[in-house]
Records
---
Amino acid sequence: MDSIENTNPQRSGIKPPNRYLGAAIAATGLHEISDSQTNSRAQNPTMLPLPPQGVKRALPNGNPAQLPDPKRKTLVERAGEPLNNNPAVSAASTISRVGVPKAVSITTLSNIKPPNINGITRNGSVTSTIPRNGSTHSFSQSVGPGSRPPVTRAPSSMGFNKSTRKTVSRTGTSRPATAMGDREGTGAQTQQQQQNAWDVDERLHELDSQFKQMKEVMNVSLTDRKALEDAVDLAKTRVVDLERERQQLYEKNEQLQTEIDDVRRQFQALTLSHEAQQRNHKYELEDKSREHRHELEEIRREFKDETDRLQRTHREELEALERHWRAELEDERTQKAREIQELRLRLGTEQQDLNNTLLSKEREVQNMRSQVEALQGDLDREQTIKGTLQQQIVEMSATNMTLDGRNRALQAQIDFLESDSQQQSTSFAQMEARLQDALRAAEEARQKLIKEETERRVLFNKYQELKGNIRVMCRVRPVLDATEGNEAQILFPDLKTSTQIDVTGPEERSSLGTISRRVVPFEFDRVFSPNVHNEEVFGEISQLVQSALDGFNVCIFCYGQTGSGKTYTMSSTDGMIPRATHMIYDTITKLKEKSWTYTMEGSFVEVYNEDLNDLLTPAGEGKKKLEIRHDDAKKQTTVLNCKTVALDSADKVEMMLKQAQNNRSVAATKANERSSRSHSVFILKLVGENSATQERCEGTLNLVDLAGSERLKHSQAEGGRMKETQNINKSLACLGDVIEALGRGSAHIPYRNSKLTHLLQYSLGGNSKTLMFVMVSPLEAHLKETLTSLRFATKVHNTHIGTAKSTKKLKERVSDA
Ligand SMILES: Nc1ncnc2c1ncn2[C@@H]1O[C@H](COP(=O)(O)OP(=O)(O)OP(=O)(O)O)[C@@H](O)[C@H]1O
């Protein structure tokens, strides 16, 4: 045990045994193992070398040999226990102190349990490997192979016996110190010992058997020792393996450390080379920068020289040019001054001429005005006469009736008188004379009435002509509901005469960025605000219907964009067409009294895509192509193959309107779902004959509902719709051209440029009367179309056919947006 501690005290970590532990180990024979270990280490120095420095560092507490095995600790702890508590050690101690054991002592020893001897396992820990074999084994373990051989003990025993005997003989009371003796120590014991002392043979025999037992124990102990040695060898092998592994790990660690050092060295080398490269680059860059600076300086110098040179050249050129242009400018100024002088002179002369013309025109206007006033006076007079005559007619009619009554009475009297006397014959003759007078007076009155009617017609026509043969009226429809959109700003400033309309145009941005809206004023023969009903509108056109009855050709148009109210004005149940026919029926009935009988025929045609369609012939009835025929002598137009309906009752007109409405081409566009894409013309022919005067008159009333006048771009029409729109726009433009040509008094009127104007040839211009309704939508969204329509209507309004008409120039105002 000492040898283990001396060889490697650090590795064992076991405290040095006290003297009791040394004795105990000696008793168990472990010292021999220690010796053998020492020897084998001496023979094999690699067996348990001191750990290398690296490994030492890696292990806990810096002691690589420290074994944390709990069993090893147990051994150490047990080894450190005071031997007084350990029966085996105590026994061994007793033996070593006493020397030769006495028989009693051996017996006692055999009863003592051996200490728990631990072996060393493969992993280096110490474990108990010794099998126990009852108390005998305990004894052998306690004694161990290191104790003196039993052979030598026999004589000792014998000697002991002898000495015992001697002691007994000397003291008589003394005896060997045994446990049993210690326990009993009584007089009976002493007596028994004295008896045994005399029985030597038995005693010897007993000792012999004890010796044999001890020998057996020794043998068993030797076997155990062998097993222990094997275990130790195994442990040693394991330790060697472990040591080798540790060595390998250590070497690997060393190798890794070397590699790390190599990598570190390489890294340092790389860093150094990189720094060197950086330094080189820096120097190179500095060199290049210097070079560039030099080059830049040179270029700058060159550029400055070149700029100075160019500037000098340019300055010289500029001065030369300036001199040249100054000279030219001077020449031109002189020339222009001369021209201005000449122009001023010419302007003065022209102004003089114009002033003269203006004066003559003013004189003409003055004359015209006085003519108009004279005519107005005539008309007033005639109207008074007409009133008087009408009064007279009424009176005459009453007289007539009275005369009729009287006549009947006289006839009765005649009958009476004929049957009676001479007196009766006389009174009959008187009455006859009076009757003749009355009849003569009645005839005179009738003749006067007819004459008056003829005069009225002439005066009425004159009156119509004074109003103008082309009249333009404007009608603004109301907003139908809130969903239609914002209402435009439309004002009716002239409430007295209702002839003006002011439309606030869309927002306009000036070049300075200010936004403003222009108020555009228009003036027409009559302006109808949204709250005016069809009845009032008809009141204005009824005179034209009368003209048609009087034998004139009359044309009433409705012009305007889709949805502005054309159809509503013209063909709705209380529109112009039904009202006109009703008025005609009423008038015809009245005129019968004046010997006038009338026939009335109606037809309804449509101009669609420059084709003429009969609206009174249903689609399935094989329509024939319509042809326009003009009678230049009568100034009448006939449409061949067109159905004509004799209008002898008011119901027929309504039926006709319905039929025409169904046959009319109506298609949808994005501007209005129910948009009329064609012009419809209601033609009413009126032929009157006076049986009294044998007069005959033939007039035509054309009521035209034009197609929507909206621009092509706005209506967003496509394909077929686009063609329709183009044709509509073309025919409306032709209508404008015809009216303009009539206004100019042009020799050629382009009636034939469109189907519509061709059809209405005798109702436009000449002796005919034209009324155009320009229909206006009240919506802000339709403002542009509204302005376009009103401008077109203004052009028509400024056209004078037949009679002179004063025109006013209206000024536009600007209002803030
Ligand atoms: N003065 C009015 N009072 C009340 N409603 C009106 C008036 N004018 C037009 N309307 C209504 O406005 C709508 C459009 O009118 P209308 O169909 O007559 O327009 P339009 O110009 O003839 O259109 P299009 O010719 O394209 O068919 C209709 O519903 C009509 O009843």
---
Amino acid sequence: MGAVNDTFDVLVIGAGPAGTSAALRAAELGARVGVVEGGSRTGGTCVNTGCVPTRVLAKTARLMREVRTADTYGITVTEQAISWRTTVARVRSTVQRVLDVKDEPDRLAAAGVELMLGHRARFVGPHELELEGSGRRVRGESIILCVGGHSRRLPIPGAELATVPEQVLDLHEVPRRLAVIGAGNTGAQLVTIFSAFGSQVTLLEVAPRILAPADADVSAEVTRAFTEQGVRVVTGVETVESLARTDVGIALTWQAGGEQHRATFDVVVMATGWPASIEGLGLEAAGVHAERGRIPVDEYLRTDVEHIYVAGDADGESMLVQAAHSEAEAAARNAVLGATRRASHHLLPSGGFTDPDYAGVGLTEDQARERDRDCLVATVPYASMERAIIDDRPRGFLKLVADRRRELLLGAHAVGENAVEVIQAVTTAMAAGVDVATLAKVEFAYPTYSAVIGVAARRLLAQPATPEG
Ligand SMILES: Cc1cc2nc3c(=O)[nH]c(=O)nc-3n(C[C@H](O)[C@H](O)[C@H](O)COP(=O)(O)OP(=O)(O)OC[C@H]3O[C@@H](n4cnc5c(N)ncnc54)[C@H](O)[C@@H]3O)c2cc1C
Ligand SMILES: NC(=O)c1ccc[n+]([C@@H]2O[C@H](COP(=O)([O-])OP(=O)(O)OC[C@H]3O[C@@H](n4cnc5c(N)ncnc54)[C@H](O)[C@@H]3O)[C@@H](O)[C@H]2O)c1
């Protein structure tokens, strides 16, 4: 065993959104900080294989849709075929441009943080890590695990034949017949992308509905849209049994409604979950326990070993960039100044770029009614909004959920064009403590999608407040 040859106040493992934020914050607080990243570049899942590539593909899907309807505006477009090779090249060049703009290695260096790229870290003791490849040992007085997660193959026969989301860009062509297993945010977005590119898509989900954590009406509306677009949506699947190579493709077998089903596809994508990347991390050498694909933490983001924290996807809480940033901020502060900052996931807006888009913040209607069945709800269809009519995007709605005195906004959920931006605007109002009456008075530029917020707030106000029970 080599000797520990470098010591840091805070050692961060992983340079995705959580790791970079944690390192910069810890350095700002005066700590000597090192970051170990196993990949050859910073950015993590988000920039390299997740949000950024998916968003470029979503834009491509949107362009495809616009091209297909361009003739209704008098524009003749004859060629509607997609060149997958060009699309992939576009995704890769965009990822590079984002990396260039973020310029994280230079920002870390400027903050005095040592970035150790291209080495996976493995615990060899509670404070010590060994860097794969170099054998270098580093020590951290505090350690923040920002190792993120990765896709999961179902433990079934033939699972190796499946494509996982990180491999989608490696496909040789757009599949003619595609099965997507798992209708979370990843699966749903892949459905829209490949459906727009011309694949015949089947979506299989074990939960009773797609996008299960979303508001039930959001899930229903996206399901309707998928079905109208020709996607076969199968929810309540009992089990996916196997994949097998045949002469004509990959035969996929599943159980639903008490019966066995079988269909053949060119590609089967498994988007069935996102466990923490703890393989080979040597958590046992540090005494940190992991369970069910995550590293549990307390309210201060500490593991069961006091000086070891977790931020980002690896703790299995809200797996979003915005959550990674806020957890990183709290973990860095706690690591440097002592554990006083609680992680808060209050007001975490999120959404996905399907067609139509969907988004939400705060309590769903069902969650709000569980707390108080007399909470108030106003839903405004996009079809009643002029901007949506002008753009011929009438599908969708905004739903606002408020307390029974119609003062506090408890949640907001939307489907439709620009849903994520609309929900962001509501989130800003909620964060500022704006009450429903004030929101109802805000002027919205004409014609905008966000004007739906004012209409929904006025509808909430028009309802009689329910007296306290
Ligand atoms: C397809 C897809 C689309 C998404 N789209 C969105 C979106 O639109 N909006 C949104 O908010 N979120 C989105 N997400 C989620 C988002 O990508 C994650 O929440 C975010 O990347 C989490 O950041 P992180 O830093 O915790 O982990 P990651 O980004 O996964 O970074 C972890 C880093 O740790 C490194 N690492 C792991 N183990 C070790 C080790 N032992 N030693 C050294 N380094 C190690 C990895 O190489 C990686 O660089 C998407 C996810 C996917 C899969
Ligand atoms: N736009 C975004 O913000 C965005 C996009 C992608 C991912 N993410 C985040 O990344 C994380 C991972 O997302 P994800 O969608 O990859 O995973 P997920 O865990 O959110 O969803 C996996 C889905 O697969 C289903 N599933 C599991 N086993 C199955 C089986 N045997 N058969 C059929 N269905 C099965 C689950 O019920 C679930 O709906 C999430 O936290 C997500 O919020 C965010």
